[in-house]
Structure of alanine racemase:
Amino acid sequence: MTAPRPSAPAGAPAAVPPTGGRGPAAPADAPAPRRTGGGAETEPTVVRAPEPAPARGAATDDRTAAGASGPPGAAGSGRDGRAPAMAASRAATAPVLRVDLDAIRANWAQACRLGAPGRLSAVLKADAYGLGLAPVARALAEAGCAAFWVNDLDEAQRLLAVAPGAQAFCLMGLADATPAAFAALGAIPALVSLAEVEACARWAAAAGRPMRAALQLDTGLGRLGLSEAEAARLAAEPERLAGLELAALVSHLAAYNLPDDPGNAAQLALLERLACGLPRAVLSLSASSGLFLGPEWRQGLARVGSALFGTQTSVVRQPGLRPCYSLEAPVIAVAAHPAGRRLGYRGAGELSRPSRIATIAAGYADGLPQVYAEAGRPHVQGRRVAVVGGVAMNLTMLDVTDLPEAAARPGARAVLLDAAAPVEPVAEAMACAPNVLLTQVGAAVRKEYLGA
């Protein structure tokens, strides 16, 4: 169950209903079948976008202008290493994800209000859910966030470059890095096994100084972390933890989005019981949805991830959150087609009336799932339009018949995801969490930042 779908903008025409059946999926690059029988088709009138002029300024990318270092691309290049002129040219014919940093700051402030009296931290793993670790971390640090969770040492290095002095917890534990590397950077591994505990204790003994670490405990999710038996072993043999300064005892709710699931209370009780036998450290169990489970969950160190970006991940709507994303794509061609014309691979859509169809430069290679054709709520200049003929690799067609010609011509922008066309309905159709869609889109497309 997800949040209710918002109503269409005022004055928007109703979305064009699907017309014609959908056959089995065709290969992405298969040619569309020709219509047979019933006479020849009328050739469409097509208007195409002019060759794009170089953009006035390069978009802010989290690995270049936003301050992070390292590949992909050399300094001053596009995200894939293109020269600036090539990147600017592509910007006019490719989708862009606009990330509103002011919305992220506002969502952080809302989470802090809800999470009191507990402490809050920000989860920016997987490149801040695909939205760009460096600019998002900088914005949150400016808003007062002092503790972050990332995947590994590489992400911790990028984080600390823009938020020096912050706590940088690494959820994958040591992974393939050494305790010495974590200590040198000042990052905190959230250890996932007895072997990692022993490796850090050995390093602390050899270095002659303590090592800061968190300890992950498996209380029911079954992924990473020490089992109940392993935690009991540490409690019985405290010398195994010699030299470690525990910054947190961490676990993860399996039914985080279901407030009434009895497993939540059982996991909290188990974590508290295991903690009694271990060195004193703050407990970290609640994630974004945990802030809405009740006062007993607003303790310790909550980890806020999806709420920062305005996505709804609980069956209980989380109030006061602003979507921070806007996925836009340019119109590159507009064609007039007669009624009865079938469009898309295998004639996936049939037009019920004479129509103007805009082709936009966005598709599943940009993270847009094919189910978007049915579940998406795209709009052009605030007016709803319908997808026709499915979602291809780099192109999607929209029915813009009901829009003024000036509103949907080559060079215009279609909005595919934003506060009025949120990720939740599409994710529901995908049978996945909203973060899945947000992360895959963010990883695939160029990003620009507002409120930097």
The mean pLDDT is 83.
